[in-house]
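User: Working on a comparison across species. This one is RNA binding sensor regulator from Rhodococcus ruber BKS 20-38. Can you predict its structure so I can line it up against the others?
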Amino acid sequence: MVVAVPDRSSAEHPPVHAFERRLGGEIERLARQVRTAHADLGATLEVITRAAVELIPGAEHAGITLITRGKRFESRAATSELPRRVDDLQHDLQDGPCIQAIWEHETVLVDDMDRETRWPTFAPRSAQLGSGATLAFRLYTTEDNLGALNLHSCTAHAFDDTSISIGTSIATHAAIAVIAAQREEQFRAALASRDLLGQAKGMLMERFSVDADHAFALLRKLSQNHNEPVFEIARKLVDTAHPPQPDHP
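Assistant: Here's the predicted structure for RNA binding sensor regulator from Rhodococcus ruber BKS 20-38:
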């Protein structure tokens, strides 16, 4: 369902406060959907981009750009091919509105991509891809990750003050949800790592008749010998169920 922007000049449209109540209800619905999906980062991002297209006036396409630890660039949860292609272009050029939104911590509006002069290489190529106007919001910031919510329209001047206001609200809710989803994934990964290490130690304890401390020492020795993380050695032991033959410490 698309939330229409009320026209204050026409008596046919409901009062502004009715629109605001309706919008508030839609954002609450978004929050409920995000809470349902928060254990899965990918699902959370998809809820956000779908809601952005539904709720933000002018938005025809949406996607999320993430820059993770090590400055790895990821294009996530795109509602069509256009956001992915524009992301790929910005990644190649290391320049563009979403990158500016991420690094400068600001909202960036491009009214007319054909006439945009801030990014002389990016803008004409983005217009050729089909982006007539772009609106990018800084999505969230953590110690290791940066992100932006990117909206695209095929026509110029598609976004207005209402688009920015609603988009800012959605981006705020999205930031909280993304951080929660990441923490949930990290927690689950930590539990999985602990379980995997426990299984691997148990296998070594049984095979070599050693205690838990000596079994972990064997894992560390294998890690050093193979130049791989302890977790990766443990995973291989569990997957194969045939541990390599280390020298007994």
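For your comparison, note: The chain has two domains: 35-184, 188-241.

User: Helpful, thanks.
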